[in-house]
Amino acid sequence: xxxxxxxxxxxxxxxxxxxxxxxxxxxxxxxxxxxxxxxxxxxxxxxxxxxxxxxxxxxxxxxxxxxxxxxxxxxxxxxxxxxxxxxxxxxxxxxxxxxxxxxxxxxxxxxxxxxxxxxxxxxxxxxxxxxxxxxxxxxxxxxxxxxxxxxxxxxxxxxxxxxxxxxxxxxxxxxxxxxxxxxxxxxxxxxxxxxxxxxxxxxxxxxxxxxxxxxxxxxxxxxxxxxxxxxxxxxxxxxxxxxxxx
Length: 246
Hints:
There is one protein chain. The protein is of the alpha/beta class. It has helices spanning 11-21, 36-45, 62-68, 89-92, 104-123, 179-185, 231-240, and strands at residues 2-7, 27-33, 50-54, 75-80, 94-99, 137-142, 145-150, 154-160, 163-168, 171-175, 191-195, 198-201, 205-210, 217-221, 226-229. It has a five-stranded parallel sheet with strand order 2-1-3-4-5. A hairpin with a 6-residue loop joins strand 13 (205-210) and strand 14. Helix 2 runs parallel beside helix 3 (62-68). The protein is elongated, with a radius of gyration of 20 Å.
C-alpha cells in the first residue's frame, strides 16, 4: 500500500488527482494540503510514501517545500501546469514530474515507477543505506529543455566550484549541489570517487593506464573522457578491478 499526500492550493486540482488515484487499490490518500507549510505539518503526524506537490503555491511553494522536506523518506513528484517550471530535481530529491492537466496514462507510468522503487527498498536488507537506486529519475536541464535522466545513464559527476557537472547519455547538465552531497546518495559498489573533484561509474570505465605522476592512475571512460585518479584512491581502484591479483 502506497500512502499518498496531495499538496496543491487549488481545490479542484486536489479533487481531480484524488479521483484519478481512487481507481488504484494499493493507493491510500493520507492527507491533503494547500501549501508547503500545511504539508510539513502533516508529515510530522503521518508516514508518507509518495507526495504529489504543485510548484506554484502561496505561502510556501513546491520548491521550498521540497527543500524543507529533503530529509524525509518519500518519493516526490512535482505537478505543474507549465513544463518550463520543471526544476533541478537531484538536489530536491524529485522522483518525477507531471504536467497538468494530468493524463491517466502519465499518472499510471509514474505510479508504476514508484512501485518498482518501493519493491526494491522492501526487498533490501540494508534499510539503513539511503543510496538512490539505479532507476531513480533525476530532472536535469539541457539548454532550455528538461529531461528525466536515470542514475544508470550517468557516467560521471564532476565538481565545478559550487556546481556539479553531470555527464549522461543525454549530454552534460549541472546541479546546484556539492559533490560530497552527491556522493552520499550514490551506491559505492556502482560509483567510484576518483578524486575530490570526480566520481565515475565503474561499469563505464573502459581502461586504466598509469598516470603522469608517479604511482598515479588514469581511467578512460567509454565516452572518451580521461580522468585522473588521486594517489589516495589508487589502491581502492586496484582492489575494485583486482589489478594486483595476477
